[in-house]
Amino acid sequence: MIVAQLSDPHIVEPGKSPRTPAGFGPVDTAGFLSRAVDAINRIDPLPDIAVITGDLVDRGEPAEYEHLRRLIAPLRMPVFVIPGNHDARAPLRAALGADGYLGGDGFIQYAVEEYPLRLVALDTLVAGKHHGELCADRLAWLDRTLAAAPDRPTIVMMHHPPFMTGIAYMDKYGFDNPGALAETIARHPQVERILCGHLHRSIDRRFAGTVAGTAPSTAHQVALNLLPDAPLGFAFEPPGYQLHLWRDGIGLVSHTAVLGDWPSPSAR
């Protein structure tokens, strides 16, 4: 089984640009996402599913979600999404709820059971805030859901990574209660990996007996600056995506790919 992970597309209405630091300039997030969709569709073998780990749009507005829906419609596999801090649950459900997995109200949390690798999706959104959290209700749901299938290899996806990254500005708006999540995850060793977004670059860390990691953005990347007082910065590094390959006897292997036209000399 192959899972394609896209993250942080920050789609806006046509003709607008996402909010970025002054001087960074406009970003064609829709164009970047279209390139990512084309790249995913060309992968051979084709991924079984695609996931998008939050910040689907930039302002949480209905017109943005309609634009997103049109952009991801060409994907040739089922798509599963979660909200990030830039998202809003009601318009997200209105635009993308036709498949039924998002639920009717409340937190956007669900499990996907139909594949060799089980997918459990978490909602870390705190409305109106940039940081994320899992309240007692959300953590209890996670514990029950993981306990229901202890023998099934599982990936958990959430927008905010549950660890400090060393990128100071983003760490200020990270995940609020990693200790409680770690206690929950540690009780369930079938969790192969925690897939996250939010950081706009690829970062990995051991966490609660598994591996937690972030995927690059399909558009602009957060600048890699590890100074403790560094301001928020973005960079036009190559956008990308991740592929997570599951095979019996091997486990889960994660690959990071960048978007672009790269020379590929034939092997001899």
Tell me what you see in this structure.
The protein has helices spanning 29-41, 62-72, 89-96, 136-147, 168-172, 178-186; strands spanning 2-6, 49-53, 79-82, 110-112, 118-121, 154-157, 191-196, 203-207, 210-214, 221-222, 234-235, 240-247, 251-258. By secondary structure, it is an alpha/beta fold. The protein has one domain: Purple Acid Phosphatase, chain A, domain 2 (4-Layer Sandwich), CATH 3.60.21. The strands form three sheets. It has a six-stranded mixed sheet. A five-stranded mixed sheet has the order 3-2-1-12-13, with no helix packed on it. The radius of gyration is 18 Å and the shape is globular. The two termini are 29 Å apart. The mean pLDDT is 94.
Fold topology:
Blueprint: E1 2-6, H1 29-41, E2 49-53, H2 62-72, E3 79-82, H3 89-96, E4 110-112, E5 118-121, H4 136-147, E6 154-157, H5 168-172, H6 178-186, E7 191-196, E8 203-207, E9 210-214, E10 221-222, E11 234-235, E12 240-247, E13 251-258
Parallel strand pairs: 1-2, 2-3, 5-6, 6-7, 7-9
Antiparallel strand pairs: 1-12, 4-5, 8-9, 10-11, 12-13
Helix pairs in contact: 1-2, 2-3
What does the average pLDDT come to?
A: 94
Query: Which CATH C-level class is it?
Result: Alpha Beta
CATH topological fold name: Purple Acid Phosphatase, chain A, domain 2
Count of distinct structural domains: 1
Span between termini: 29 Å
Oligomer: single chain
Strand line-up across the major sheet: 4-5-6-7-9-8
Taking the sheet with the most strands, its summary is: 6 strands, mixed
Our estimate of the beta-strand percent is 15-25%
The number of strands is 13
CATH homologous superfamily title: Metallo-dependent phosphatases
Low-pLDDT ranges: none
**Protein structure class:** alpha/beta
